[in-house]
User: Which sequence fits this backbone?
């Protein structure tokens, strides 16, 4: 198992702090960042600080400008599909908009992915989908939110992987972030709605049976339920 190096251990909290501050608006677009001031703030070497800024530059959160150093980038240039930026947006003032965008993405993608999985999933994947839907039922009815979250991420990741569409499969980490965010921010009910559990089971059964139309239809109902639940939670607070 690969363990983080000493430099990596130093870098991660710095990247996390600066990323949250940029995405949250504490470091606004146009703000100049110098290695010297950042070194002093975080108490690290120039090499460590430079490597941190390279990561933020790869996310398009900052960009180099001649004679100025690194400058905070406007949000329209950020990499919106990176899981870290998604996580930071979900933790900041742009949370509601980020949830809306991610839910619209799921509505656009997951029903078609379910149809593809009904047609292309392996026998092993079909059986695993049914087993994961059963796990969701068991953990959901027991109020075991952490176990429910793990099964939910596994269910939707397998769905995207089994769709036969590599672009859909690449969205696994994106969907995982929104599912994790709902749980961590208290936007999941203690016991998930029975309708959501029913639809997970119906999606899995349709995929197992190879019924493309039914899989798409049930997944459409499921993501629509997610949208309505989120709208209610974000308007009126967590249930």
Assistant:
């Amino acid at each position: 198992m690969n363990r983080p190096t000493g430099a990596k251990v130093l870098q991660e909290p710095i990247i996390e702090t600066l990323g949250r501050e940029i995405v949250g608006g504490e470091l606004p677009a146009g703000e100049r960042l110098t290695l010297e001031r950042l070194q002093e703030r975080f108490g690290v070497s120039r090499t460590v600080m430079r490597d941190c800024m390279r990561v933020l530059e790869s996310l398009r959160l900052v960009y180099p400008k001649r004679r100025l150093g690194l400058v905070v980038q406007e949000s329209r240039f950020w990499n919106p599909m990176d899981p870290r930026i998604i996580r930071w947006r979900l933790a900041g003032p742009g949370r509601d908009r980020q949830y809306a965008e991610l839910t619209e993405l799921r509505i656009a993608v997951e029903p078609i992915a379910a149809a593809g999985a009904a047609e292309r999933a392996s026998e092993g994947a079909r059986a695993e989908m049914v087993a994961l839907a059963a796990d969701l039922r068991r953990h959901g009815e027991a109020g075991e939110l952490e176990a429910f979250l793990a099964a939910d991420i596994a269910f939707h990741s397998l769905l995207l992987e089994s769709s036969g569409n590599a672009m859909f499969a690449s969205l696994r980490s994106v969907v995982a972030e929104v599912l994790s965010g709902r749980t961590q921010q208290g936007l999941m009910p203690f016991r998930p709605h029975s309708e959501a559990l029913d639809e997970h089971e119906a999606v899995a059964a349709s995929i197992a049976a190879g019924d493309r139309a039914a899989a798409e239809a049930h997944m459409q109902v499921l993501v629509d339920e997610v949208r309505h639940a989120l709208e209610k939670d974000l308007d009126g607070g967590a249930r």
Q: What stands out?
A: The beta strands are 32-33, 62-65, 69-72. DSSP finds eleven helices and three strands in the chain. The longest helix spans residues 95-120.
